[in-house]
Amino acid sequence: MPNPHALVLEVQAHQKQVDKLRENYTYSSAQVTQEIDSKGNVTKTESSENEDFFVNGHVIERTIARNGKPLNDHEQQKESERIAKLVAKAEKTPPGQPLEGPQVSISRVLEIMQLGAPRREKFRGRPTIVFDFAGRKDAKAHGLAEEASKKLKGTIWIDEADREVAHLEVTFDDNFHVAGGLVASVQKGSNFRFDQAPIENGLWLPTGGEGTMAARVLLLKNMRQHFTERISGYKRFKVETQQAQDATPIPDRK
User: Fold this and answer.
1) Hey, what domains does the chain have and what are their CATH numbers?
2) In sequence order, what E strands does 67-202 have?
3) d(Cα 68, Cα 82) in Å, to the nearest integer?
């Protein structure tokens, strides 16, 4: 078994490179969000199809269809105005800081986690090294995203051959309050899963995720949602790079 500390440093370096390289790409994302009542019943389902790109390290998501229907002219105009405002905000917001509310990133989880219970498992046909982890309470935090990361625990699957994060499962092990709970409070037990896979030429990029979030908004409304996201169609867009065909995850190696 590799030295855990050395392995995480190696994976951190790879993940930061992934974060940088993915800014050379655009991609498509399909999202489904379900609202769930206190008895676990789905009360509302919404879906969207989006085109995603990056500005100053921040993902910008342009909606092109909702609930299976393309946006009409009026909706497209409103979406263009929203995107223009987000781009302007992204240009002024340092990379790593969220544009809207607390966000959980693989890079930040790698920086603050304390590892335990190392073991080997096969994941999607590939050998992986698996660790359980918890956020270090003494980690220095700057902003909502980093404070939220300290409230996490979970499990991480690291591809043994490529030293890349293949799968990540995280859970809030305590309530997380935004503005002291006056704006919102993410409830203990909210959970997320992320997946990455080799896309082209051995480059690993995100392929999707899912999660369930329970929150209390403005001290008035309890909200519980389950969401899924599937990412596909990576394309290079930088002028200095050659346009690539739509990419799909490379089949698992046995």
Assistant:
1) 4-236 (2.50.20)
2) 69-70, 113-123, 126-135, 152-159, 164-172, 176-178, 184-186, 191-200
3) 21
- Please calculate the CA angle 96-210-45 and round it to the nearest 5 degrees: 115
pLDDT digits 0-9 by tens, 126-153? 999 998 988 766 656 555 555 666 677 8
Contact (CB, 8 A) for 82 and 71: no
> What does DSSP assign to residue 160?
T
Residues 155-172 pLDDT 10s: 999 999 888 889 999 888
CA distance 105 to 157: 15
| Region for residue 108 given its phi and psi (left: phi exceeds 0; alpha: psi -120 to 50; beta: otherwise) | alpha
Hunting for tokens 């001290």 — which residue is that? Answer: 219
Q: Between the ranges 15-24, 137-146, 241-250, where is the mean pLDDT highest? A: 15-24
Look-up: residue for tokens 């995603």?
52
Q: CA angle, 195 as apex, 249 and 38 as ends, to 5°?
A: 135
Residue 228: partners with Cβ closer than 8 Å, 6 or more residues away: 31, 32, 208, 209, 210
Tokens representing residue 103 in the block: 């966000």
Q: Look at residues 153, 127, 163, 150 and name the one whose alpha carbon lies nearest to residue 8.
A: 163
- The total number of residues shown for the chain amounts to 254
- First-last CA distance in the chain: 21
Contacting residues for 149 by C-beta, under 8 A, at least 6 apart: 104, 108, 109, 111, 112, 135, 139, 141
Distance of CA 80 to the CA centre of its chain: 24
- The helix (H) or strand (E) run that includes residue 214 is strand 203-217
With beta carbons less than 8 A apart as the criterion, state whether 168 and 154 touch.
yes
Task: Report how far residue 55's alpha carbon sits from residue 107's, in angstroms, rounded to the nearest whole number.
Answer: 17
